[in-house]
């Protein structure tokens, strides 16, 4: 009997490992995206995430991190045409993720981030359209989850930039950044696949606030 | 038991004995390695990325018949069935290039497009609104591009030796009759539609698609914006009036409305004018736009515009300036445009209808006269991608026009009317084939039948483009174009055939992200132009001919100088026509041999302003001098035209813009031509009077306020 129980317990744990191959693989590749240094490393991680996205039909996370990887590549790229191409790939992944879970605040916030980077390609020609879209996305992300620290931090970033350009007060933007930092410090996502990036960016922004 | 347990554990936890190794190499069609391609077994996590040399190697736990998939941006997916049985598999994958890439070849001969931010286009929508000297007029901005001739007293687009009526405007594919507002004699008219309404502008100076007919020289194709994204109210306080606009947005629809009042009287009170105004131009305008998304990707668009403008002035006799004639004009204009686009199976169908109504009520010394034109245009187009290389487009349209002119008969002392109703029926078909990302060809034709004179024409169109390297490309275009004779001639003889023009265009352009270079040469042959006898204007026929040829250069650079964007255009034009009352082939009065424009935009973030300067030059234009002998027809040339215009847009707050512009800053007294007295003076000479600017400078000040929830929004793109 004892042996049988042990046997069952082992079987269950083996089965759990098998079904949680998703979490295990995702954890590995998310780590790879966060720590990538070269274009090749990014590309390898993005490809791996894309493979998982293709195999898993009901998960938005692989699309999210694939998009995040392409967004990071876009920020590192200097050629405007290539920058746009990476952003297009990021947006395409976000769109696919939204088909799976349209109300995911993290996906919408990342979409806003893509628009934000889009502005930097040609601020004079794109500022109006894409900064409007970015504000809209961050607003929507916050309405879906007001405790999303990334949506708050990005919104703070946009508000700060706008306020700085027009020489108006940055109090509101800095307040928002402070709130975002609190959330970064207190939030402890139970889900190992939940996004955790953005704290450093917020800390940097708060330095400018002082 | 123990043995069984061990086997079970090994079987579950270490199933490696059944893994298959898959190795191979990913290359393009030319055999060059593709690094970074995603190689995978479908519906599994197994896979890898190809290395710098294109090779890959990975293990798969899957078994049996599986699909190996290789993907890489810019290439078609590669799929191959593989049997995974533990034996090594080697794959040689040659990926096919995807056609119609963003950096692939495009047909560019004859056209300037401003749209789609991500495409490398020559102009951006904001350029059209923010060009100094244009005062937010579409034609004004396009007049800084090669292929146009500056005709300062008209304000219209004159393209490659064609007159102002040869350039046609289309909104969402539908024709616009009378696209320019009324203007006093010798003062420039403005386009009726403001640039901010459009997300895309394609200005073609020749060789355009078979979809566009009834345009001899140029097609200005405007694409209106899609659904608005946020609620906002815009208020404009202008030195010449005021406007208010509001946009209301729903989930799948948006409505915007605008009312505008302009009155130039107070401005004319401040700045001396060469025109003897009784009542300066005044206009009321209202417009509305409605957008509705239908289903997954259907879009319904409606746009309507109502305008009434009027002015009154005295024309003075040349010989005896004290003798004056009163001229009153009231213009009533209505335009409506509805269009719908919907994918149906493998086709995209788009259709629409437009309605134009234009009435000019003219009184000369209180004697009534005028003209009315009503037009209805309906069109249905189907587009189909046969493959990623071949796209076809077929369509049909009807353009119905009713025209009536009322003249005053001095002898009988009553009004007389001349009228006609014209129905143009047309069918067109076009195919665009990408041989590769380097070569594309577009061929098509247009059949047109005009009921008025039972004329049937077939107009072939052909374009080719070749992109040998990464940036530069060559294009060629040929086309035959027809257009009904102008109303003032057609009303005299409705049997006049359409005028025709053949275009041949050769183009080379290099576009990088921030620089554009373009050179274009063309040859145009005109036939069936309206011609009449100067002595007897009733003898009117289609016997006129003409030609135009030229070379044009364009350079734009937004990179070399920080925060500065500039472009330079030069056009050389050689044209002669034997038409209208010309005694022989001569250069028309609107044509100048050399045109040059330099546009400069500088963003000064310290003072939150964008400053713009535009310099335009045109060499002298021919004019008719009746004091010369008949053989010296159009031999004389006006002095050259110079204009330096400036504008500044200042953003003190994020929802407030102060905009100031001034044309002809240096105050040059430009002469566009000369008018002569109809009879000789006591010395037997015809006396002349120069056609000059109504005022040397035009100053404009506007304050634009936007009220919306989103604090970053302002009207900058509207200016």
Indicate the mean pLDDT of chain B.
89
Mean pLDDT of chain A equals: 87
- Termini separation of chain B (Å)? 85 Å
Provide the CATH topology of the largest domain in chain B: Maltoporin, Chain A
> What is the percentage of strand-forming residues of chain B?
over 45%
Report the β-strand fraction of chain A as a percent range: under 5%
- The ordered H/E elements of chain A are HHHHHHHHHH
What's the count of strands of chain B?
A: 38
**Name of the CATH first level of the largest domain in chain B:** Mainly Beta
Q: Whole-number radius of gyration of chain A?
A: 20 Å
CATH class of the largest domain in chain A: Mainly Alpha
Shape label of chain B? elongated
| Poorly predicted ranges of chain A | 1-18
CATH fold name of the largest domain in chain A, please? Serine Threonine Protein Phosphatase 5, Tetratricopeptide repeat
Q: What is the CATH-assigned architecture of the largest domain in chain B?
A: Beta Barrel
How would you characterize the overall build of this protein?
The complex is a heterodimer of chains A (210) and B (719). Chain A has 210 residues and is mainly alpha-helical. Chain A has two domains: 19-102, no CATH class; 105-210, Serine Threonine Protein Phosphatase 5, Tetratricopeptide repeat (Alpha Horseshoe), CATH 1.25.40. In chain A, 81% of the residues lie in helices and 0% in strands. Chain A has ten helices and no strands. In chain A, helix 5 (80-100) packs antiparallel against helix 6 (105-121). Mean pLDDT of chain A is 87; it is low at 1-18. Chain B is mainly beta. In chain B, the strands form six sheets. Chain B has a 22-stranded antiparallel β-barrel. In chain B, strands 8-11-12-9-10 form a five-stranded mixed sheet. The longest helix of chain B has 12 residues, at 2-13. Chain B starts with a helix and ends in an 11-residue tail after the last strand. Chains A and B meet through helix 1, helix 3, helix 5, helix 7 and helix 8 of A and helix 1, strand 3 and strand 34 of B.
